[in-house]
Amino acid sequence: MYRLFLLRTLSAAAVTAGLASASHAQQAGLFGGGGTSAEPDYIAEQATFNTAEGTKLPTFSTYWGSGGGAGQQAFINDDLTCDINEVTGANGGKCAGPDGGAGNTVDYGASDSALVAAQISSWATTSFGQAAAGNLIQLPSMGTASAIVVNDKNVTKNNTLHLSDSDLCGIFSGLITNFSQITDGTIKPTPGDFTVVYRSDKAGQTFLLTNHLNSVCTANNTAPGITFTATTAFTTLFSKVPSNFVGEQFASGVADAMAGCTGGGLPQAIGYISPDFTTLDPNSDGKLSCEANGVNYDSTLLVAGLKVGTGFFTPTVANIESGLVHPVAGTGSNLTPPSNASEGANPALWVPVEPEVTTGYPIVGYTTLDIAQCYASKTVATAVQKFLLDHYTITAYTSQEAANGYVSLSLSHASNFLPTIKANIFANTNGWNTNIENPTACAGLLGR
User: Could you tell me if 46 and 32 lie in one domain?
Assistant: First the structure.
């Protein structure tokens, strides 16, 4: 049974102790973290890697489930305390540095949202970015989705509550505040005011949701003064957050609040979370398990069906896959892989963005992995590349992804990126010099 809150506590103690004893620039292992939605899957995959490769290559230390925004910041700044402190609350949850400091190296970052221009620019100009570690490499990792979870006594199974895009725009803008205002579907929720549970940290799940709402919402179905933009920070959409909205940190925080793990529960509520924390994926490593007031709340979260065309879809693996391979024509960006060396060196061009779909589940995207081109240790570079290759191709990993509610890259729209990744990130087939540990690009660089 996977208990995220317990594992996070144990992780904090283990890695803090490891950092305290580190006295050299490069830790003996692979360090990083980020998004909490995919955290259970990455922990499982990293454990598989450690078992298979531990006698030959550096192994993964604790995955820090700090949230996608903190994970990206930690990686860009080369400051593992950004991850640690976000989880433990040390230093008020803020990075403590030093950036690029001894025993504080970050080898990778993970998120459900792509890096923004300011982050990419920071890598290009800081002493611990391009100047030390070569190109910033950002890769699509797995297809994912944002599930709309619901609490109501009339909602007794998945796909009972049906929501249109107009409903979503109203709910998450604060225009719709009572279940009586939702009219789609044959099963109506119990009339009554409901709570909206959102991610209070910078989260890729928020990006997936707001990226979709940015594409489908209009002034006619959104609260006055609210315009959705694709963002990882939900509260930035509001000058004042509506009174019926409650923020929770991390994916587990949303899950705990919706399921009642934080005490009492929310009898009427709607929130968003990755599917692996819901009842859609009963064998997931993210399966919620907690106890409150003597009651065990084991994967109780139910999801709404979202309207696409004439059907209503839940974020099953098959429906996420269908959504990813059917983007609405004329929407989205980066739907084809880089085609030359200049494009290949631009991390912004490696992650497809798909805000609308013609069939399947509509709120979809890609969880990403951020890595450096050059590492201080050749064995660390080899381990990073070996993990990525295994992650993309080996059944032990791809089946783990499916069990956790994720779509393997090979089955998604981004499958056309895989040959380009193999040719230009794992090798230098086209002479772009963008591959990991490229001798020309990494010559004279300190590396991560």
Answer: yes
